[in-house]
Write a structure and sequence with these properties.
Layout: E1 3-10, E2 15-20, E3 25-29, E4 45-53, E5 56-66, H1 79-101, H2 108-126
Antiparallel strand pairs: 1-2, 1-4, 2-3, 4-5
Helix pairs in contact: 1-2
């Protein structure tokens, strides 16, 4: 199986590229990432198989060999600030829950903002 390192990956776009050790760029779709992995950092060493796709070589059966060290631990928010953010988020979620009980869904913009807040908090908790 070929190996290579992630050149870049965009969660928003749902794809990225791998610089294979053979020297070619290989398309990496989000659906090819290992189960439970939604995004991947540049520099991550991967083991993968290759198939010809409409965008050229495409990675399949991707396995993570070595991930670069996380910088998230160095960028952790102060515990008191994180606690306040969580408390504010609970209030927002309570409002959204009450609206849903009355048949009102958040607008796409509101839902996207809330999703970003929840992912940001999750990232801080996992760091």
């Amino acid at each position: 199986m070929p190996t290579g390192r992630v050149k870049w990956f965009s969660l928003e776009k749902g794809f990225g590229f791998i610089a294979s050790d053979e020297g070619e760029d290989v398309y990496l779709a989000a659906t090819s990432l290992p189960e439970g992995v939604s995004t991947i950092k540049p520099g991550t060493k991967l083991d993968f198989s290759v198939a010809d796709g409409r965008r050229g070589p495409q990675a399949l059966s991707v396995k993570i060999i070595d991930a670069p060290p996380s910088l998230a631990a160095n960028n952790r928010i102060n515990s008191d600030d994180l606690a306040a953010m969580i408390e504010d988020t609970i209030k927002i979620l309570d409002k959204v829950g009450n609206s849903l009980r009355h048949g009102r869904h958040p607008s796409p913009v509101e839902a996207e903002r809330l999703g970003k807040v929840l992912r940001g908090i999750a990232g801080q908790l996992e760091a």
